[in-house]
Amino acid sequence: xxxxxAEKMKKKAMGLTAALLVVxxxxxxxxxxxxxxxxxxxxxxxAMDQSLRSTTxxxxxxxxxxxxxxxxxxxxxxxxxxxLEPAFLAHDEDLRRKVSSGLAPILELDEEELYxxxxxxxxxxxxxxxxxxxxxxxxxxxxxxxxxxxxGVRLIDDYKRYYPYGTVASNILGFTGYDxxxxxxxxxxxxxxxxxxxxxxxxxxxxxxxxxxFEKEQLIEAENGSDLVLTIDETVQxxxxxxxxxxxxxxxxKNGAVAIMMDVxxxxxxxxxTKPDYDPNDxxxxxxxxxxxxxxxxxxxxxxxxxxxxxxxxWRNKAVADxxxxxxxxxxxxxxxxLEEGLITEASSYTCNGFVKFEGMKDxxxxxxxxxxxxxxxxxxxxxxxxxxxxxxxxLLGATTFAKYREAFGFTQKTGIDLPGxxxxxxxxxxxxxxxxxxxxxxxxxxxxxxVQMITACSVIANGGFLVQxxxxxRIVDQDGNIVKTADTAYRRQVISQETAxxxxxxxxxxxxxxxxxxxxxxxxxxxxxxxxxxKVDKHNxxxxxxxxxxxxxxxxAPAEDPQYALLVFFDEPGxxxxxxxxxxxxxxxxxxxxIMEEVLPYLGVEAQYTEDEYEQLDxxxxxxxxxxxxxxxxxxxxxGLAYSIIGSEDGxxxxxxxxxxxxxxxxxxxxxxxxxxxxxxxxTLVEVPDFMGYDLANASYLASINGLQISVNGASTDGTxxxxxxxxxxxxxxxxxxxxxxxxxxxxxxxxxxxEAEGQEE
Amino acid sequence: MAAQGRTxxxxxxxxxxxxxxxxxxxxxxxxxxxxxxxxxxSLGQGMDMPLFVFIMVLLAVGLVMxxxxxxxxxYYHEGNSYYYIARQGGFAVAGVAAMLLISTFDYHHFHKLxxxxxxxxxxxxxxxxxLGPVLKVKEIAPPEGDAYRWLQFGPLGFQPSEIAKFxxxxxxxxxxxxxxxxxxxxxxxxxxxxxxxxxxxxxxFFENHLSATLIVLLIGAAMMFVGGTRPRWFILxxxxxxxALAVMLIxxxxxxxxxxxxxxxxxxGDPDLTHQTRQSLYAIGSGGLFxxxxxxxxxxxxxxxxxxxxxxxxxxxxELGMVGALAIMVLFGxxxxxxxYVSLKAKDRFGMMLGLGITFQVGxxxxxxxxxxxxxxxxTGISLPFFSYGGTALMMLLGEMGILLNISRSATVEKT
Lengths: 763, 416
Hints:
The structure holds 2 protein chains of 2 kinds. Chain A is an alpha+beta fold. In chain A, 37% of the residues lie in helices and 21% in strands. Chain A has 3 domains: 54-230, Penicillin-binding protein 2a (Domain 2); 320-475 and 486-609, Beta-lactamase (3-Layer(aba) Sandwich); 619-745, Trypsin Inhibitor V, Chain A (2-Layer Sandwich). Chain A is built from 24 helices and 31 strands. In chain A, the strands form 10 sheets. In chain A, strands 2, 3, 4, 5, 8, 16 and 17 form a 7-stranded mixed beta sheet that branches. Chain B is mostly helical. Helices cover 69% and strands 2% of the residues of chain B. Chain B is built from 15 helices and 4 strands. A two-stranded antiparallel sheet of chain B has the order 1-2. A two-stranded antiparallel sheet of chain B has the order 3-4. In chain B, strand 3 and strand 4 form a beta hairpin. In chain B, helix 3 (49-78) packs antiparallel against helix 4, helix 3 (49-78) packs antiparallel against helix 13 and helix 8 (191-206) packs antiparallel against helix 9 (210-227). The chains are: A alpha+beta, B mainly alpha. Chains A and B meet through helix 1 and helix 2 of A and helix 3, helix 9, helix 12, helix 13 and helix 14 of B.
């Protein structure tokens, strides 16, 4: 019995122990397998997450230089972001108060808001102030040191982007976001190259946020971004910008403007200015007056949204992102097609009756000159910008050949310019290209392209027939000075022959002198030009109660002898109430084209060569005579062959106190210098500038002389041209003898592409 | 030995005669030794060597892990990394000395000591309750939240519940050995135990120390089961305790039901409540199969609360991986199995039951601790024998091991 009991007990004891070990440890082993093997990664990651503090070491963004390689267009400088780690502050009331009351005044923050932020125990990262500069950082550090705060507030290295030239190249450069990422323009397009590679410092921290001893910090150095050297020249860019602004103001342009200047041989864009623009240092502020006026006009409730839309609009690079009907500018390409195919010659003739009738259309398509141009050669046809002539060429080409050249000129594909947001062009496919569509496209209407496509096609004619790759960045240089990448300047293909290109260029030269494009005439230079006045038919069809709006454009190149630079200028919706009717490409875009060329060409090293006529018209530079005695001054002027008049005392010994025009200013060859001495009434020497607009040269000269003013002539002051621009606005008070610069152009809206009625019925 | 060496060197000239003589000499004492068993450490009869070695190995591993696990906590809370290991090392040395001493103390003396020990235990438990919840003498009975578990007399602090476990083992072993033949009866197999266990468990329960209460009941129940109490009483008792727990969870404090929620989903809910379990699982998961390496734990850097205590096994898992954790579980298994084996071979029934009780205590605590750390069961405060920091607990444990070793001396077991 006793023996039996003992055996039973032993069995029970062994069974119980075995059960305990097998069940207990077995269950634990299953758990271990679950947590260590199956979910090991999760757990490990979670554990790492809470103990590893990873600090990003930002890479410095590359610098953007202009073509000279010395002017900095965009640059980064060190700043700091102030970050709270509320988890290490939240538990300590005194500390919270100390931190918030101490930092608020330094960082210009609201103390109570800051205090609230310090209370979020679950946060290890709350940004309270971005981009403080060195001085503020030092103050913050001093505060932290003085108060022995070693945890809970951190300063994180960062960079801020500066654009020293402000608005000048905004639509090319773009801007960067809060985290330094490129958002628009080159900053976006070349973000990968500019950005560099951020480094990281990973350090292990214990639960009290102190560095773990014996844990090595892992440091990966930041690699700074590469620099960009652009083909854009800051000087040219500024000139484009200046004259666009002038044109917008003078011609009351409502919807912005574009000017692109391109090296026709390399495709390098030397200047690309668009309006509206903005200051990349402060991209969220809308600068454009038209846009602001539009917003003002809206009810208050809609203004915020309108402001956002306006921001996006001012960031938009109109030169690549917007499309337009190229209008008559496109005729240079169609003419080239005809010559290249041998279907026409310069001397071929065609008779324009003022319209062309198409089967199935009730009304014919008119020439801009309803009376018709009669029988003209092709050379005359292009200079006249005669629509039927080009419909005729389109007809000769046929849809297939036309479409082939249209593609060869690059109108059907994006140019691939290194700027973001390039639009696709809109055109009729070969299958849809019926006789009417072909006719319309032949004079540049009813298909949409981007301005950059147009200037690239114009470069084909300028450079002898080759399609180049438009680009803005010349080379990318890394931080060690190695060139990482250079722009591809190779021709993409030959579109037309050298002969064809030269022939068209010569006609365009003539056109810019005496043809419909004479507004672009530049004294001292042989320029080639073609105007375009495109109707905004789509917009007109949407709301017929409003008058038709136009895009006035002028596209050309110089110098004619060896074309180097192409320039496209276009104004979107010119001709506000005060300058009503002034909407044509020649009248509006021509003078601006001329002024830009006149200033840019000498800068780019193209020397002026004056003809005799031009030399006559050329202004002299006013000498320095102020401060001399009257006798001395008169002697000096006579020596130079300049006339003079005297206001005030005529005693030969009195000093000349003032001279108009001032020293260094232009004075016409047949003009005079007004010498002011002493003893005259200042008010009596002031005159009001009259309105010269619309006067021809003779009348303008008379008007000037009766007002005691002088004029200086710009543009081709030949027969039939009138003043379209005066350097000093009518109504301003100026001194007697002041020289006013007048720009003469032919004043008719020469080449409006399609008759409105015809267009309306076609729709 | 030195003399022998010289002789050997001298005999090098005549190796053929020297070698057989040497072998003969060595063989002689070996024969003598095998006749009187292994005598190392032994006074009187030898103790069980495997058990002794397992205990010492486990203790050594435990101390190494305690050093590693407490390193950072000690540094940040005590100012130096050696605070806990130094103290625990001291207790371990004293504990091993006590173990060896007690292993020479004939366990039969505990027959007579069983009721006095129980008496002292009950008095101490009452003292805790009196000085704690009733009189609030913080100097002697410091509270831990709602719980009063400690008695502090100057530098000496201990938990009477630790002593209670031993007292219960002692009394139950005594009762079973007295009533071995009548254990199947209600009168002898249930009532006396109910009185002893009920009293002690109730007192510990009132300390708000649920884990110790359950351990006392489990040890007692296991011993009664082996002793011969009828299974039906365990079913009844199990139902009663289970019912009581259910009532506590449903109707009782949020504190207890919160533990269940944490157990079921340690990654959501109140971060304060889930913190310990979550951090424990992070540690275990970080270890993977082979661990981060000894000393390489991240979680011990103040993320896992009190890593040197109840959750030391999580750090073991993190540093030694699943392989290391299983190895240590095997080591525990060896101690427990050998402890049981030695107990079963004890000379008499009291020795057997005493040994089994001690073995069960180690087994139950180990299993429960590891299951808590791995979130296999809900979190409740149980320390890991030989590993967790705690002077009294370690001293008590090693003392009990001494008793086990003493039992082994008279046991009919192969001891080498």
